[in-house]
């Protein structure tokens, strides 16, 4: 059967239109999907406040929000915690805990060691929390041995839960049991990603800033820990110099900004008296 010239023209037009649609779809499929750049967050934690150490004032004057970890029972514990709070920084307890190596005398008063009874550990943790004004969390000072001890950490984290504190694992040991025990106890935890000044030189701090930058290319947030004391002036100086550059790519936040949001209220859940 012969096809009329009109019909042949119509079929040709439909065919061309179909080819055009398929070509357009293929083109769209090949183009990368536009995605919004995920904002990066940096939480700077500064340890070892409480003893009038080098860099204390310089750290507190940095133009970013910090998390200030204050050791209990020391000469400037309350002074440093109050100063940090007045500047709007998060304050946490920097709890001295037993290391694998090192002298116990380095820990300071009220330290948590693995030879203590459960009752004594609880007593010391409660006292440390009470001694640091405005504390909303806790992290470990040293503690490579204590944070690997399930019994010790169960008591420490249970007290944190009772007092409403989160726990930042400084990760001084790869054998840490904090994540496992915290999950069992029901305590919110965070963990350190980069130590800025585990070597006390300006060049090392600069190198660690580079490590942090690289970490942020693969992760949305990075928790870094620095110190007042021997490296205090190096760390505060480097941070002050790199903050303008880093602020163009990331936001500096206190640890509380990285905590998970509370569970949303679900219709039908039983109401607990006093719950807000």
Can you give a write-up of this model?
There is one protein chain. The protein is of the alpha/beta class and 276 residues long. Helix content is 40%, strand content 18%. The chain has eight helices and nine strands. It has helices spanning 5-30, 56-60, 77-86, 118-131, 150-163, 178-185, 202-218, 232-247, and strands at residues 40-49, 66-70, 90-97, 135-142, 166-169, 189-191, 194-195, 221-227, 250-252. Strands 1, 2, 3, 4, 5, 6, 7, 8 and 9 form a nine-stranded parallel sheet that branches. α4 (118-131) packs across α5.
Keywords:
disordered N terminus, 9 strands, alpha/beta, 276 residues
Number of helical segments? Answer: 8
Overall 3D shape = globular
Which bin fits the share of residues in helices? 25-40%
Low-confidence stretches: 1-36, 264-276
Intertermini distance: 82 Å
- SSE string: HEHEHEHEHEHEEHEHE
The count of β-strands is 9
How much of the sequence lies in strands comes to: 15-25%
- C-alpha Rg, in Å? 27 Å
The computed structural class is alpha/beta
Largest sheet: 9 strands, parallel
- What is the residue-averaged pLDDT? 86
């Amino acid at each position: 059967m012969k096809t009329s010239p009109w019909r042949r023209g119509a079929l040709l037009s439909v065919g061309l239109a179909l080819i055009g649609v398929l070509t357009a779809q293929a083109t769209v499929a090949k183009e990368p999907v536009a995605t919004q750049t995920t904002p990066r967050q940096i939480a700077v934690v500064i340890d070892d406040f409480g003893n009038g150490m080098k860099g204390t004032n310089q750290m507190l004057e940095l133009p970013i929000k910090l998390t200030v970890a204050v050791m209990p029972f020391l000469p400037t514990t309350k002074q440093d915690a109050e100063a940090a709070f007045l500047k709007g920084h998060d304050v946490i307890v920097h709890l001295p805990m037993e290391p694998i190596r090192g002298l116990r005398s380095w820990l300071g008063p009220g330290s948590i060691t693995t030879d203590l009874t459960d009752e004594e550990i609880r007593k010391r943790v409660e006292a440390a929390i009470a001694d640091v004004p405005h504390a909303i969390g806790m992290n470990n000072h040293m503690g490579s041995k204590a944070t690997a001890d399930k019994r010790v950490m169960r008591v420490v984290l249970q007290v944190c839960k009772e007092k409403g504190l989160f726990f930042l694992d400084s990760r001084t040991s790869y054998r840490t049991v904090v994540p496992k025990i915290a999950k069992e106890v029901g305590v919110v935890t965070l963990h350190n990603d980069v130590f800025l000044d585990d070597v006390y030189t300006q060049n090392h701090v600069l190198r660690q800033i580079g490590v942090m930058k690289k970490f942020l290319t693969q992760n949305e947030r990075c928790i870094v820990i620095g110190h007042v004391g021997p490296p205090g002036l190096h760390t505060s100086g480097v941070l002050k110099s790199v903050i303008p550059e880093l602020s163009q790519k990331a936001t500096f936040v206190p640890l509380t900004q990285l905590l998970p949001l509370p569970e949303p209220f679900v219709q039908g859940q039983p109401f607990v008296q006093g719950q807000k």
